[in-house]
Amino acid sequence: MSTGPAGGRRRLPLSLRRRAVPWDRQRPTWREARPAVISGALKRAQARPSGNWYVVGASRDLRAGRPLARTVAGQEVVLWRDARGRPVAGPGICPHLGAPLRDSPVRCGTLVCHWHGLALDGGPFAGWEPFPVHDDGVLLWIRLDAVGGEAPLDAPVVPVRPDRALTAVYTGVGTCEPEDVVANRLDPWHGAWFHPYSFVDLTVAGAPDGSDGSGDAFTVDVSFKVAGRLVVPVRAEFTAPEPRTVVMRITEGEGAGSVVESHATPLGTDDRGRPRTAVVEAVVAGSDRPGFALARGAAPLLRPLVRAAAGRLWRDDLAYAERRWALRSTGRFPD
């Protein structure tokens, strides 16, 4: 993909679509989006080890002095930072009489049960056993061996990220299972049809056939819409490094090396017995342009905008995932 005159980088990251095609006149992609290719990529992703690690939220959501509560696969978990600022995690049910530890305060790095004062510093105590926890600087992970049932790994499978990046994390919840979220991301052909407000001129330049696991990636040429006919063209790769994660990495064009990580975490079931899944998406954007340092400095202002853009996409993509689960659960999903 050419990025500027004589193959050099454009002075500005924007391009002007000179032959803009209306949505209903773009090239259909349904013949290329073969169900067998998507399901094959999904099965290979599900066969990769996760080490029983689950994403529970953004690193910045875990602040000193207050706990963070989550439910993963029906299990209550609680996280907080100890006196040294390190994350600790464990069951969210007090082992004494079952108090919800999510409502208990943290004092000097110790979680103090608000029912009877049982104090937890993060180590095993009074029947409470901690879970392994990992803070990668962007996301928080916990390891639940009883839930995952795999051979445990010492650390989660964290994708390579750009240095000195602008980061933002979006979280949404849908009525589906993690595989439905992953299947959505392993279908890049729907992008310009389902999200015309964000993507145009999308072409899947390469799709995996499973013959070479090391090259199990979807390669996509696409332009991100900015305003009117102004776009940012890039080449990106979609890969699934573990069963509940799909990574989009920009390989050519503006922001090369930047990643969007989509993580799916099972929450449990709702009052009707339907599965609920959280999507935790981390946008980790980098650039070697001199002005990007200003963008990093303005991160507190930019993060809400990035989250809003991710939220608009995921309103659609969760509808896709929910529809897929509804059809699968009733035996109506196309073979």
Could you describe the 3D structure shown?
The protein has about 325 residues and is α+β, with helices and mostly antiparallel strands. It is about 20% helix and about 35% strand. The chain has six helices and 17 strands. Strands 1, 11, 12, 13, 14, 15, 16 and 17 form an eight-stranded antiparallel sheet that branches. The longest helix has about 30 residues, at about 300-330. It is globular and about 70 Å long. The model is unreliable at about 1-10 (pLDDT under 50). Keywords: 2Fe-2S, Iron, Iron-sulfur, Metal-binding, Oxidoreductase. This is DUF5914 domain-containing protein.
Keywords, separated by commas or semicolons:
single chain; 335 residues; alpha+beta; eight-stranded antiparallel β-sheet; three-stranded antiparallel β-sheet; 17 strands; iron; Rieske_2Fe-2S; DUF5914
Q: Which structural class matches the secondary elements?
A: alpha+beta
- Please give the radius of gyration in angstroms: 22 Å
Kindly state the mean pLDDT as a whole number?
Answer: 94
The major beta sheet can be summarized as: 8 strands, antiparallel
The helix-strand sequence is EHEEEEEEEEEHEHHEEEEEEHH
Number of strands: 17
- Count of discrete alpha- or pi-helical segments spanning 4 or more residues: 6
First-residue to last-residue Cα separation: 36 Å
Query: Which regions are unreliable across 5 or more consecutive residues at pLDDT < 50?
Result: 1-8
What amount of the residues lies in strands? Answer: 25-35%
Helix content: 10-25%
> How does the overall form come out from the CA principal axes?
globular
